[in-house]
Structures are given as structure tokens and as C-alpha cells.
Specification:
This protein has seven helices and three strands; from the N terminus they run αααβββαααα. The chain is mainly alpha-helical. A hairpin with a 4-residue loop joins β2 and β3. The chain is globular, with a radius of gyration of 19 Å.
């Protein structure tokens, strides 16, 4: 068999898996097909959401650029921040995202930007209390507890904003849906 034939057979197996397991949500199908479709997120739509929410969240004084990640990555989104120049790059995983809704993803990352000053203040306080060594178990414990509070808080705020002013109230069940699918394979 040729490489093209092997790929075709693999794609057929993926389609059979999706059909057999009754996976109907188009974005979840994309995750299982792993690249048979072009891209999950429309970056023009992403720019529209960025413009909309930058205004709503009063981040007008920031220069924010989108960056499309088109390779294997452990995250769905992230934001890199230069506080001095008031610039940020919002990274969107368009290869293997863990979540499948674009607008909540953008709001989530912009809220990290909005909370950046507080985030940095708390991290500085942790370093004052536990030292500069990030491999120290005490520091790691404090940092993990901080993240266990920060991420769900940002996610709750993002969902609230989306409920109040989002174009779609669709929630992403990406990671938890994958857990369900894995459980049912056993």
C-alpha cells in the first residue's frame, strides 16, 4: 500500500469511530479527525471577537495581536504580555485545541491580560515569602494553589461575560468530552 492509501484507510477508521460512538458535534468530530478538515477556528472571526472584547473589557490602550498556532501544542490558548510597551500576543491553537469555542477562549485570555497586574503582584509576594527558587516545594505548593484559584475564576468570569454579551452561549466540553470518550472505550 502507498502512503496515500494508508492515510485514506486511517481516515476511514476515524470516520467509523465517530459514527460508531455517535459523536455528532462538528467540532468534536474535528478533534477526532485530527486534521482532515482544514482548521477549527476562523481567524477572521477571531479578530472580530478580539476587537469586540478588547473594547468591552476596556483594553483599548493595549496593542493586541492574534497568533495562530498550527502545530502540536498542549494548550488551546495563551497570552504573552509586555506590560511596559502595553503589547500582547494572544495565541490560539488551531491544530489540536482542547476547547472548541472561540469567543469564550478569547475572552478568557483577555481576562488574563486584564488581571495581569494582580497576577504579577501575587507571584512577587510568593517569591518574597518562599524565595526565588521555583523548584522549591514550598513555592511550588503556593504557586499551584494560586493557579487552582486563578484559572477557575478567570473561566467563571469569561462565561459570565459571554452569557451577558457573547454571540454564542455555547460551552466547550472539549477536555471533559474526551474523558467521556476514553471511559467508554474501556
Amino acid at each position: 500500500m502507498t502512503i496515500e492509501t494508508n492515510k485514506f484507510v486511517l481516515d476511514i477508521h476515524k470516520l467509523i469511530y465517530i459514527s460508531y460512538n455517535k459523536i455528532t458535534h462538528p467540532r468534536m468530530c474535528y478533534l477526532y479527525l485530527g486534521g482532515m478538515m482544514n482548521k477549527l477556528f476562523d481567524m477572521n472571526e477571531a479578530q472580530k471577537f478580539l476587537d469586540k472584547w478588547q473594547e468591552i473589557l476596556r483594553l483599548r490602550d493595549w496593542e493586541i495581536r492574534l497568533f495562530e498556532v498550527e502545530k502540536e501544542w498542549r494548550k488551546t490558548g495563551d497570552i504573552k504580555i509586555d506590560e511596559n510597551d502595553r503589547q500582547a500576543i494572544l495565541m490560539i491553537n488551531n491544530y489540536n485545541p482542547k476547547h472548541t469555542t472561540l469567543e469564550p477562549l478569547i475572552v478568557h485570555e483577555l481576562l488574563h491580560l486584564k488581571l495581569w497586574g494582580m497576577d504579577q503582584m501575587i507571584e512577587s509576594m510568593m517569591k518574597m515569602a518562599f524565595g526565588q527558587d521555583e523548584s522549591d516545594p514550598k513555592y511550588q505548593f503556593a504557586f499551584s494553589k494560586f493557579m487552582e484559584v486563578l484559572e477557575p475564576t478567570v473561566e467563571d468570569l469569561a462565561r459570565s461575560f459571554i452569557e451577558l454579551g457573547g454571540d454564542s452561549n455555547e460551552l466547550s466540553f472539549g477536555r471533559v468530552q474526551q474523558q467521556v470518550e476514553e471511559e467508554l472505550k474501556r
